[in-house]
What we know:
The protein is α+β, with helices and mostly antiparallel strands.
Amino acid sequence: MDALAHHAPDVALTGLAAGFHAVAHLPEPATEQGVITGAHKRSVGLYGMSAQRSTNAAVPAQLLLGFGNLGERAIQAGIAAVGDLLQGRRNGTAPRF
Length: 97
């Protein structure tokens, strides 16, 4: 939560009470696939909520953030690496897919 607040303050989190994951609600203009693709290029694995929906809809743009088997430092480094993508920025603009 602290890493997101610092690197991507416009991203809201829900589902923390579930225990091992949270749902990140991405602000516009971020797209689920754009963030996932950009994160992968930075060696950060992210998963979209669209695969969890019966319709596979990518809107609203949300990510499933698993943290059950990760240390705090790894989480902080990953969020720092993709904070701009989570905010819908990549060198000033977000990729659209």
